[in-house]
Specification:
5 strands; alpha+beta; C8orf32 fold; 15% strand
Amino acid sequence: MKSLFILLLALTASTTALAGLSPVRHSNETYEAASKRSRMNHSYEASQNFLGRATPEKSKKPMAELNLNEIPDVGSYADLEREFKYVRDTRFITDVTPFARRLTWMYPDDGCYARAEMASIALSSHNFPAPKKIFVFGSLKALTKNSPYGSVQWWYHVAVTYRVGDEAYIFDPSIEPAKPLTLKEWNKAVGGENSYVKYAICSNKTYDPGSDCAAPRGLPTEEAISEQKSFLSPEWSRLLDLHRSPEKELGDNPPWLN
C-alpha cells in the first residue's frame, strides 16, 4: 500500500481536479452569505446532483450532540502523536520544484478540503486506521502567524479526526502544528467560543460540504494531488509576503521544529 501511494504521488495529474468549495469568508461576511456565494461560484455540487443527499452541511449539529463513537479509536495517544507528525512533516508531493513539498499547512486561508483529503489518503496508506473527517460550520475565525492580518476567516473548515478513549483529537497543523487538538481545543481555535458553530462527522471520503457525508463517491487520488498542488504557489507567495523564507520553512526548517 505504501509503495502504491508513493507512486501515485509521484504522478503528474493528467486532468484538472474538481475544485472543492472554497471555505473563504470575507471580512464582515456572515456564514450564510459566504456559503451562498461559494456555491454560486461553484458548479460541482449541481453537476453531481448532491442537492438531495445528506451532505455535511445538512448533517451539522451542535458539538454537544455529536456521537464521538463514530470516530475510530486508535487506542494509544503515542500512536496518534506519531501519525500526526508523519502527516505534518512528510513531503508527499514529490514531482514539484525546487523540492518536494508537504501539505500546505502554512496557507490556512483556503484548501482545507484538499489537505484533509491528502491526509486521509496518507494515513490510510501508512497502515493506520482510516480517519473520519470533521466539518465545522459558522462565522469562523482562526488566529495564525501565517496571515498578514493575524487571522483567517472561513464559513466552514474540515480536518481528519481520531479518538483515544472518550477524547476526540483533530489533526490540523494549519491551526496548531505542535500537536493534535482535542475537539474542545479545536472548537476554541476556530472561534467556536465567540460564534455559534455546528459540526458534522463524516466519511473519510467526504470531500467538501457538497459531498455525501455517509457514502460519498470518493475522489481519485490523482485529483486530490492536483487540487493540493494548486495551493503550493499561494503558500510560497504567502511566506514571501510575510518576509519569511519559503526555501527554509517549506524545506528542511519548518517553524514548528523550532
